[in-house]
Amino acid sequence: MTSIRPVLALIAAFGLTGCAEPEVDYYQGYVEVEYLHLALPQSGRIEQLTVQRGDRVEADSLLLALEATREQAALAETSSRLLQTQAQWQDLGTGLRAEERAVIQAQLAQARSAAELSAREAERRRTLVHRKLLAAEEADAAQTLAQRDAQRVNELRAQLKVAALPARQAQIDAAQAAVLSAEAAQQQAQWTLDQRRLDSPAAGWLHEVYFHRGEWAPGGAPLLAIAPEDRFEVRFFVPTAIAGRLVAGQTVQITGPGLPRPLEAQVTAVADQAEYAPPLIFSRDRNEKLLFQIRARIDNRVDGERLRLNPGLPVEVRLP
Question: I want to staple 129 with a disulfide (CB 3.0 to 4.6 A). Which of 29, 111, 139, 293 is the partner?
Answer without folding.
Answer: 139
